[in-house]
Design a protein that fits this description.
By secondary structure, the protein is an alpha/beta fold. About 40% of the residues lie in helices and about 15% in strands. The chain has two domains: about 160 residues, 3-Layer(aba) Sandwich (Rossmann fold), CATH 3.40.50.2300; about 270 residues, TIM Barrel, CATH 3.20.20. Helix 13 links the parallel strand 15 and strand 16. Bound molecules: iron/sulfur cluster. The site of iron/sulfur cluster (SF4) has 10 residues, from loops.
Amino acid sequence: MSIEYVLIDSHFENEKDESLLHGRFIPYGLAILDNTMKTAGYQGLLLLENKEYNAFINSTNQQNNSIKLIGISSTTITRFDAKTKIEECRATFPKSIIVAGGHHFGNCAEDALINIPQLDIVVRGEGDEAIIDIMRYACGSLAINAINGISYRDEYGSVISRGPKLIVENLPSIEFVEKFYSMEQFVQNPLSADMPIPSMNILAGRGCPHNCIFCSVNRTRVRRYPVEDIVNMIEKTTKKFNIRGVKFYDDSLTLSNSYVSALCDEIIRRKLDIVWFCDSRANINLDLLSLMYSAGCRYIAVGLETGSPKIQKIVDKNITKEQVMQFAIKCKEVGISTYVFLMASFPDETPEDLELTIDIARDLSKKGKAIAGSMGAAVILPGTQLEKIARERGILAEDFSWHKPFNDQLNLDYDVPPNIPLYREGISPEVYKNAKRKMLANYANSLSLRIFCKNLIENILRRDISWAEKMTIGSNIFKAKIKSLFS
Ligand code: SF4
């Protein structure tokens, strides 16, 4: 079999720690592209892990000369790993067409093509259908200017962007995704810190119509996989692996009341003995919550981001603290635990605004309305309104590029990795740390330390690594947890 295409995932610098802390998500985007290519009759490889990629790039196998197309997917935080892989692939396969996609590249296509000369094409938006046309171009049977939704360099080196961002109207079937659940890394994640049961991750759809300034998925039409497909996948996988936990990782599962009602009805009709976790906006029809509980929902995470009305307007979340409060009260009433996401360091935010965020955390934690919460500093992602403001105000340097080396050690004071830009304006590291400490003290997070340790030990013992590595990783994660609780 000669290989005609290769699809490659990119990773965090410290992949093992990330996997242990957050679990791994099935890479639906790459998996769907791989399935589309195979269905069209092409032969190829899907390289999800670094060890698979390393074996591939170091192979001198003759059949690799047949590779027409190499596709690399990335998020903003993994972009430098993707860049390295693009450079290595170009050096090893000089004749292949190299394509980049995913949220990150799709939102800064021109920057990528200017600063990564080894890259040929960037897909802007959802490439599920365009991938076949790009393959035909790579095989010489279609002109590049016949493909919409991509950016590329013309013969003079200028970047050409053809058509608007791609949105797939009808989501493809995801039945084939089932095979990924047989891979250990995708089923072992604990459901939550205080319910450490093995769980599977699942994605019920794509898109969000809202417009939060920091978010890179905003303003895209919501589409959902059929309820039947999702429940089939849950039923088969939970039974096959004898697990009960299900974690939906949609940005907001509840954007459509009718979809969630149908999903819950189907889970109840099949009498599935599962417990599940999802993200939601707080302004849903609260009557839905008791049906969700009956279908096994036990945890919902909602974003409020800020307790300051002034900053709420700037963030454009369109959720009020009163709505979050009502949501948490109703959740508690029906038996669902609420997690609340809070953020800090937005444009024009002052320490006084941040105090209002702490106040809401305090109110939510009273009488256990919300059982836990998290606070993160506002990072800048490409294509967001926050990026635009950061450029206008000089928070991002004039010559900033997403693909030039970036390493800001000051980020560590805000618990943000150094390779991603942070919106740093009116909230100093001291103010941020103090607010985070107060916020965590308000919730019962420190009480979950015992459960966190239990999960950590269980996860590490399962890993196929040496004892020395287990000790190093375990102590690093434990130290990070202690720091987040008490710093
Ligand atoms: S943060 Fe959530 S609600 Fe806001 S645009 Fe992103 S996905 Fe939508």
